[in-house]
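thread: overnight batch results

M.L. [08:02]
morning all. the overnight job finished for the chain we discussed friday. pasting input first so we're all looking at the same thing
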Amino acid sequence: MSVAGLKVSFATSDGIFTAVKGIDLDVKAGEVVAVVGESGSGKTVSALSILGLLPKQARIEMEHGELAGEDLTVRTEASMRRLRGSKVGMIFQDPLSSLNPVQRVGKQIVEAIELQTGLRGGAAKKRGIELLQQVGIPDAANRFASYPHEFSGGMRQRAMIAMALVSSPPLLIADEPTTALDVTVPSQILELLRELRDELDMGVMLITHDLGVVAGLADRVVVMNRGDVVERGSTAEILGNPQEEYTSRLLDAVPRLDRPGRNRPLSASGEPVLSVDGLEVVFGQKRRFGKSSLVSAVNGVDLDLPPGRTLGLVGESGCGKTTLGRAIIQLNRPTEGTVEIYGDEISGLSDAELRPLRRKFQI
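M.L. [08:03]
and the structure it wrote out:
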C-alpha cells in the first residue's frame, strides 16, 4: 500500500472539519507499520478512507494511492468491493458492532470463506473451524455454532481476526486488534501475525495505542496527532529516542508497575461495602433423559471490599470475571451464595425489591 497527500474532511454544522491533513503512508510486503496516537488523531479514519468505508459525507482526496496494484485515485465501489477481503483484510476495533448478533459465529465465518475462496459445504466449515483454532478459540468445533453474545469480548475479537484472515490477503489493516483480549492472548495473536507476515510476505498496517504491541511487532512507527503525522521512523528510533515532544508524552503515559503506587492505608473502621460468600453461578439445566448441559461459570467465590478501596479482579477471558460482577448486582441470578451491600443482603430479592436498592450500586 502506498498513499500520498491523503486528506479526509467532513461537512459539519460548524463548517468543514479536516480529520486527516495530507499525510503519506506506505506499507511494504512483509513489513509491519504501526500507526500510533491518541483517540481522535486520525488513525482509524485514515484506514477507513483507504478502504472506502467512510460515509458519503466524507470527502477524500489523495495525490497518489495504490493498494495491491490497484489505483485508488480512480476507484469505484465495485473495484473496492473486489479488493476488500481478497486483497486486504480488516480487523475492526469493536467486534460486537461488527458481528451479526442473530447469526451464529460459524455461519458468518463460512459466508466469508464462500465469498472469498469458493469453498462450499463441509470444506468451508472445516476451514472455518481451523481458523478459529488458529486464533486460539478453545473447543473450536463446538463453539463454531455459538452466537456472538455467547462469546467473551476476547473471543469475539479472535473470531473477527479469523474472518480477516480467510483469504490470506497480502495486506492486513488491524485496528486495535488486541484491545479486547486478556493479557495472555495478545502474545498468541502477535505470534500469529508474525507467522502470517513471514509465510505470506504480508504487509500489516497496525493501528494501536498499545506501545507494548508496537515494540513486539512493528518494524516502523508513524505517530499521528490531530490529523497530522508528527514523527516517523524505525521502532527502535521512535521508542528509544523520540524527537518530538508529543511522542515523548505518549511514551511517558504508558502505565508501569515499577512506578510508586498510590494505595492508601486501610481505614480501621467501617463495615465492608461489599461482602460475597460462596457465590456460585451455573448456566444450563439438568435433563431427566439425555446429557445435562451445565456450565459452572462461578464456583464458590468469597470476597470483601472495604470502604474507600479498589479491588482488582483479573483473569483470562471466560474465567468468570464479568459473570461474577453481574451476579453480585443480580443481573445474573446466583445459583448459591449470598451478597451483601452496605450490610443489606440482596441475593434472592425480587426485581421489585431490588429496584429501590439499585441506587447503591452501578455497573
